[in-house]
Amino acid sequence: SQSAHKIVALFVGLFCLFLLAPVQMAPTPASMCTPLKTLNDSLSHRRRYMKHNFPINYTIRVHQHEVFKLSNISRMRLQVEGLDELVLQRLWFQVNQGVLKKILRVMPERHPSRPYTAELEIRFRDAEGVFVHSHPAEVFQQELPEVIQDTWDHLTEEPDRVPESRWRYASPKSLLDNFCHTMHCLFSECFASKEAQQDYCSVSYWRKGRKKDLEPES
Ligand SMILES: *[C@@H]1O[C@H](CO)[C@@H](O)[C@H](O)[C@H]1NC(C)=O
Ligand SMILES: *[C@@H]1O[C@H](CO)[C@@H](O)[C@H](O)[C@H]1NC(C)=O
Ligand SMILES: *[C@@H]1O[C@H](CO)[C@@H](O)[C@H](O)[C@H]1NC(C)=O
Question: Where in this chain does the entry annotate a coiled-coil region (predicted)?
Fold first, then answer.
């Protein structure tokens, strides 16, 4: 009968989805969660070290693409159909490696936030190491979608060949806010809470969080 056919079709469909899922959006390997949570612990002190120890309105010069926010992620997901999470995760590592390097570069040897930032960088490198080792090497040789490849090429350009128009000024705190928010969005499986389904990729989630903590505007 027809309804039996429909049920069979449904099962076949579900089965195919199940088969396809790991290919289309590689889940975050569980091994990633330990270093990412450690990183998250460090990031919880970012206000103290990235704002209070710097002059008011202090900004540093970063590459345009080093401003990598939740809105960039949603835009890229719209631009590239079936965009693999792994591609965005790779981009996240690439961007934030540059961000940490630039923050460290402006801090003199004895800057009170230097040990914090240096430790953050070590923890970031640890997470990157686990990331690289928990995926087969071929994954990192895969061709990137064009928009992502363009971004990547710009990020890895020699600094003195970057035209003036592609530099931006951003505060260290805002860069680490982006770092933290996009980490939760792209590795949400590691930050899932038991009580409630959270959408770490939505800007409103972080606005709410800010009010809850009664943190002053940054
Ligand atoms: C991440 O850090 C925040 C504090 O910034 C904390 O509230 C949250 O529980 C941490 N998440 C995990 C999974 O460790
Ligand atoms: C910091 O920036 C804000 C907004 O742009 C401005 O109103 C304020 O005067 C600035 N503070 C200092 C000390 O420059
Ligand atoms: C994020 O979006 C801004 C514009 O809102 C853009 O300047 C920046 O290059 C984007 N970042 C990346 C990594 O694409």
Answer: none
Which residue, by CA, sits nearest to atom 7 of ligand 1? 44
Residues for the chain: how many in total?
Answer: 218
| Choice from 51, 54, 57, 59 to test ligand 2 binding pocket (greatest atom count within 8 A of CB) | 57
Q: β-strands 60-63, 167-170: how paired?
A: antiparallel
Residue 212 lies in a domain: no
Closest ligand 2 atom, CA of 55? Answer: 13
Instruction: Give me the sign of the Cα torsion angle 27, 152, 113, 200.
Output: negative
User: Considering its fold, how many domains does the chain have in total?
Assistant: 1
State pLDDT tens for residues 14-70: 655 555 544 445 578 889 999 999 999 999 999 999 999 999 999 999 999 999 999
In 30-181, at which residue ranges do the beta strands (DSSP E only) sit? 60-63, 167-170
Spatial distance between the Cα atoms of 218 and 216, rounded to a whole number of angstroms = 6
| Domain enclosing residue 70, as ranges | 30-207
Does ligand 1 come within 6 angstroms of the Cβ of 142?
no
Give the predicted TM-score (pTM) of the model: 0.84
End-to-end Cα distance, the chain = 63
